[in-house]
Task: structure prediction
Amino acid sequence: MRTFISGICLLCLAVNLRAKDFCSLIVKVRNPQREEVEALVVIKEHDGRRIEQQNRPGGVRFCDLGIMPVTATVGHPACNQVVVRNVPLDWRETTTLPIYFASSICSITS
Result:
């Protein structure tokens, strides 16, 4: 009996460690020329929780989301903000969301 309980505890520990490595969403922000750009990525969950990360090479990973759809926002509301609503998340599968964002238009001055 003791061996059985120890086996269950080891299995639970392995599942828990693997869950910490899992990320349900990766967002990759690129310009129209398909080059990665710097931009603030905001993820909003259905309960209102907001997570902000700066885009970096390879995209940004959001690892502690549930399975409910989320909203992804890139950029400032005053200039070319991109909003993607109802991004589906699947249990134990990573969703990669490419977002094309023309940030250079915002820096043009007249």
Observations:
- The CA atoms of residues 57 and 75 lie 17 Å apart.
- The chain has one helix and seven strands.
